[in-house]
From TrEMBL:
It comes from Streptomyces tauricus. It comes from the Bacteria. The chain crosses the membrane at residues 32-51. Residues 65-87, 193-212 are annotated as: Disordered. Keywords: Membrane, Transmembrane, Transmembrane helix. Residues 92-183 form the LytR/CpsA/Psr regulator C-terminal domain. InterPro entries: LytR/CpsA/Psr_C (IPR027381). This is LytR C-terminal domain-containing protein. The keyword Cell cycle does not apply. The lineage of its organism: Bacteria, Bacillati, Actinomycetota, Actinomycetes, Kitasatosporales.
Amino acid sequence: MSMLTPPGMGGQYRITGDKYPRMRRNRGRRRIVLAVAASVTALGLAGWGTLQLIDVFTGGGDKASAAGSAPGCKTSPSPSASPVKALPEPGQITVNVLNATARKGLAKDTADALKKRGFKIGEVGNATKAYDKKVDGPGVVLGAKAAADAALPVLATQLAGAELKTDTRAKPAEVDLILGKTYKALTTKEDADKALTTLARPEPAPSTKKDC
């Protein structure tokens, strides 16, 4: 065997030039590495599948719980029905029309207009000294404390901007309408009727519900 023959060649190959013959890699080692990698992959897939089955049978995959709302739910208002208020009809209210201005005939004209709208008319004349020439707005609706949520707001629908006040009188169905300095006319019947409807049926109170 020549000194230039690589060890293990058994003298079968002889170097004739300046290059060694190419050595073949060991195929057995490559097969072992591929087998190990395949085994690891198979074990990983088997473990993942087992976890998925556990989630399915235990309900772990269901993120939403019926017992409670998920975090981050938004609340939105929803209307709820409001009860209809029991208010007196115009024919159940007696109105004293009193003029607190220097304009003559104002109380009578206003009383005639209210009568056409169904109100009962009581006293018609000038305001008392406590209010005469002292009402700066369009008017004052004055009545008993018991009329604060009944006859007073009903009459106030007939005069926009009227101020509501109470006194110590005993009759809740008797109300004074005191005409002030800026009074020009009653609210139009159409607008007054709308105001009466709104008074009897207030806007629905909002309630909150969760949207998830």
